[in-house]
Design brief:
InterPro entries: ADH-like_C, ADH-like_N, ER, GroES-like_sf, NAD(P)-bd_dom_sf, Zinc-ADH_QOR/CCCR. By secondary structure, the chain is of the alpha/beta class. The protein has helices at 41-48, 120-123, 127-140, 157-168, 180-188, 206-209, 223-233, 253-259, 273-288, 305-314; strands at residues 2-5, 16-19, 29-38, 65-73, 85-89, 103-107, 111-113, 148-152, 172-177, 193-196, 215-220, 234-242, 262-265, 296-301, 321-325. Helix 8 (253-259) links the parallel strand 12 and strand 13. It is globular, with a radius of gyration of 20 Å. The termini are close together.
Length: 327
């Protein structure tokens, strides 16, 4: 089979397009013939060998997310059968041979049905973004229906799913994006209000949009830039959940003290097994119910994985998910 393989850590050009043997599923494992694979920022950090959560043994095929058709099941697997349309969310799987490939083998618990209404391309955008969105809202922020949720940087792969899940759960959602296209996308998926975070003073609109209450929950995608400002628009007893950060920040703790606010970090790698499993099943149910419609921002062929890794680091004004199409 054709796959991406890296034999050393480094820049994007360590990703090589090669032929590999087809992996075999063991007990409680599934082999999926992939049509598409998702590309996540964390995979670029893993490739560089600098990621605190995971440094794989080499050689290594990257990729945790994908979608395709079940090709073969191992002993003990009864929930899935060959021919099933599925998505793969294998970040915390015990075995994962990598989704940047024509075939992947992983734990059966990481493979779930993909509704006919969701394309394979969309299915490849579910794994890490979907699990992150679910964990952020329900395990960390513990949102409640009727609360005001501000998604700060909502037009990327995670943010779009956060908006959809929060709206479906009954939250009033304010989203921000950095371009007109991103703002229109947020309106299309159901955000109650949309702000342009490229415009000066955009956060000054939140008091008026919330009748002076502020946001009960802020989901923050770039904490090193925005965390202190988040505290200023947060409601009393509010929660800010940090999804992403690319540096350090000088922070005024009194802002959190004045509102008795919580600042919560999140990383899927830390999820207890029970929360990982509940997130996967929760996302699968949301797909089946038509709540989630993943958005594709850029599609490249599998052999262009180097370009995908370069683009995901340098992209600005993200609109949806980067995926690799697989023949």
């Amino acid at each position: 089979m054709r796959a991406i393989r890296m034999s050393t850590f480094g820049e994007a050009d360590v990703l090589q397009f090669v032929d590999l043997p087809v992996p075999e599923p063991g007990p409680n494992e599934v082999r999926v013939r992939l049509h598409a694979a998702g590309v996540n920022p964390a995979e670029t950090y893993i490739r560089a060998g600098t990621y605190a959560f995971f440094k794989p043994d080499l050689p290594y095929t990257p990729g945790f997310d994908g979608a395709g058709i079940v090709d073969k099941v191992g002993d003990g697997v009864s929930r899935l059968r060959p021919g099933d349309r599925v998505f793969v969310a294998a970040l915390l799987a015990k075995r994962n041979t990598g989704t940047y490939a024509q075939m992947v083998v992983c734990d059966a618990d990481a493979v779930h049905p993909l509704p006919e209404s969701i394309s394979f391309r969309q299915g490849a955008a579910i794994g890490v973004p979907g699990l992150t969105a679910y964990r952020v809202l329900f395990h960390r922020a513990r949102i409640q229906p009727g609360e005001i949720v501000f998604v700060h940087g909502a037009s990327g792969g995670v943010g779009l799913l956060v908006v959809q899940l929060a709206r479906a759960y009954g939250a009033n959602v304010i989203g921000s994006a950095g371009s007109k296209e991103g703002m229109e996308l947020l309106r299309q998926i159901g955000a109650n209000e949309v702000l342009n975070h490229s415009s000066p003073g955009y956060l000054d609109k939140i008091p008026a949009l919330t009748d002076g209450h502020g946001a009960d929950v802020v989901i923050e995608m770039l904490a090193n830039v925005n965390l202190e400002d988040d505290m200023k628009v947060l409601a009393r007893y509010g929660r800010t959940v940090i999804v992403g950060s690319r540096g350090s920040i000088e922070f005024t703790p009194r802002l959190a003290m004045m509102k008795e606010a919580d600042v919560l970090g999140t990383a899927l790698w830390n999820a207890p097994h029970s929360e990982y499993i509940s997130s996967v099943y929760g996302i699968a149910a949301a797909l089946e119910a038509g709540i989630l419609k993943p958005v594709i921002g850029q599609e490249l062929p599998l052999e262009k994985a180097v370009q995908a890794h370069t683009d995901i680091i340098h992209q600005k004004g993200a609109r949806g998910k980067i995926i690799l199409s697989i023949e």
